[in-house]
Structures are given as structure tokens and as C-alpha cells.
Design a protein that fits this description.
The protein is globular, with a radius of gyration of 17 Å. α1 (23-34) packs antiparallel against α5. The protein is α+β, with helices and mostly antiparallel strands. It has two domains: 13-130, 2,3-Dihydroxybiphenyl 1,2-Dioxygenase, domain 1 (Roll); 147-262, Roll (2,3-Dihydroxybiphenyl 1,2-Dioxygenase, domain 1). It has five helices and 16 strands. The model is unreliable at 2-6 (pLDDT under 50). The strands form two sheets. Strands 2-3-4-1-5-8-7-6 form an eight-stranded mixed β-sheet, with helices on one face. An eight-stranded mixed β-sheet has the order 10-11-12-9-13-16-15-14, with helices on one face.
């Protein structure tokens, strides 16, 4: 699980967002588990926005789940924002490729333009273009508190890779044979030279397809204990993965799934 920095943000995940019922409790949970600092920023009405930072670098945001999302049955969850040059044209291309625009492209004053979309297999994510041009370059990919890995559990892993490769220029890297579980396909961002995530066909036990994001922590056992101490649950791991890193998959106080990755146990 490694990644190198490349110059253009196009086609990359550049932001992550938690949606749920109790932002304050969630921010406290993740600050304890991951080491982020939380800061409330501008918001509208009853939905202020909380930014989570690793040092001086903003990694993610938190917001209460909207009435519209709750009406659609959306659970507390994490979602990723993928940077594009033109949100409107990218959304149109996505729909033409079999995806769906769940919220039409719109502006966040002073922040940027975004759209809420799903891929052809129903997995939610966001398209995004910031108002100020290219975002600042991130710290080293293995910096503590950053997202060190992205993993798509798809209904059909091969078809999912083709969709994201066509839309964002992602490149196919090694495929790892997992036996009865099929191929775990590593991918790289356009213009990059490193693995940044994996795509797989989900297991029959998984209720539906989803993106899973892995946050960098110093050591996995201590992080797993922090999850449990704050009321979260470990659902898989600790386990060692190819390359010598260690991971756990967990749920937070509201049941949102997330994962942690560390260079040592």
C-alpha cells in the first residue's frame, strides 16, 4: 500500500466526508483514533461543517446527514470526492457510462463545484472542482492521518475497474489472485507510478457495494484498542497485508465503516 505524488489532481480522491447524526461525537471519536484535529467552519442552518486535519493539512469533513439522504435510506457513512477539471461534463460522461447523478452539479460558495453521483453498480461518491484551481499538494502519502489506501468492494470488480479507468484515467497495476474471492485489482491514478488502491468483487456476506477508506496510523494494535475504547467495533483484523503493512476494518459509533493501516503491528 503505497503511493507517489503526481502534479495534477485530476482523477484523484482529494477529499473525504463523513455523514451521520452526531458530528461532535464522531469528531471526538476520530480525533482519538486517528489523531486528527477538528475545527468547525462555515455552515448553513442546522448543518455546520467540521474539518478534520492532520497537522496543518485538511483531510476530511463532517456534516449531519441531510433530510433528503435519510429519506432515501442512506446510513451514516464515509464518501470520497474525486477531482475533475469540469464537474458538469464529468457528470454527463458518468451518466452516459451507466452511472447516475443523484444531485446535479452545484456550487459551494467560495469552495468549489460538486455533484453527488453513483457508479453503474450504485456506489456513491462525489465529483469536485475547487474554486481556487488546483488544491495544494498533499504531504507524503504515508503521512499520519492521511488516507493511505482506497478499496472498492463492487458487485463486479472487473466492470467497476473499467468504469473508473474510462472516466478518470486510472491505470491497471498488479492483480492479486485471492482464490475463491477472485482477483484483487490494484490501480494507480492517471499519471502516477504507484499503487493507490484496490478493486474487488465483494463477498456474498457484504450487504452491498461500497468504497472503503484506510487512514494512516502509527501502529495497528494500539489503534484498534483506541477504536474499542471509544465505543467502535473491530470487524476484521488486525491482519498483515502484502508489503508488510497491517490493517483493521472497523465501524464507528454510528456504524459507519472505515479502516486503518499502519507500518507495524
Amino acid at each position: 500500500m503505497s503511493e507517489s505524488k503526481t502534479s495534477s489532481p485530476a482523477g484523484k480522491f482529494v477529499w473525504y466526508e463523513w455523514m451521520g447524526e452526531d458530528v461532535k461525537a464522531a469528531a471526538d471519536f476520530y480525533a482519538h483514533v486517528v489523531g486528527w484535529t477538528a475545527k468547525n467552519t462555515a455552515g448553513t442552518g442546522e448543518r455546520p461543517y467540521t474539518v478534520l486535519s492532520a497537522g496543518a493539512y485538511g483531510v476530511a469533513g463532517m456534516i449531519t446527514i441531510s433530510t433528503e439522504a435519510k429519506a432515501l435510506g442512506a446510513p451514516p457513512c464515509w464518501a470520497g470526492y474525486i477531482w475533475v477539471e469540469d464537474v458538469d461534463s464529468a457528470a454527463a460522461k458518468l451518466v452516459a457510462a451507466g452511472g447516475a447523478a443523484k444531485r446535479a452539479p452545484s456550487d459551494i460558495p467560495g469552495v468549489g463545484r460538486f455533484a453527488v453521483v453513483t457508479d453503474p453498480q450504485g456506489v456513491y461518491f462525489r465529483l469536485f472542482r475547487d474554486a481556487g484551481g488546483n488544491p495544494p499538494p498533499p504531504p507524503a502519502p504515508d503521512a499520519l492521518g492521511l488516507v493511505g489506501w482506497r478499496e472498492l468492494h463492487a458487485n463486479d470488480g472487473a466492470k467497476a475497474f473499467d468504469f473508473y479507468a474510462d472516466l478518470f484515467g486510472w491505470t491497471k497495476r498488479r492483480g492479486m489472485d485471492m482464490g475463491a474471492m477472485g482477483v484483487y485489482q490494484l490501480f494507480g491514478f492517471a499519471g502516477g507510478d504507484s499503487d493507490v488502491g484496490g478493486i474487488m468483487t465483494r463477498t456474498p456476506q457484504t450487504s452491498g457495494p461500497f468504497w472503503l477508506f484506510y487512514f494512516n496510523v502509527p501502529a495497528i494494535d494500539a489503534a484498534a484498542e483506541r477504536v474499542k475504547a471509544k465505543g467502535g467495533k473491530i470487524v476484521n483484523g488486525p491482519m498483515e497485508v502484502p508489503g508488510g503493512q497491517w490493517i483493521v476494518q472497523a465501524t464507528d459509533l454510528e456504524g459507519a465503516l472505515f479502516a486503518l493501516v499502519a507500518p507495524k503491528r
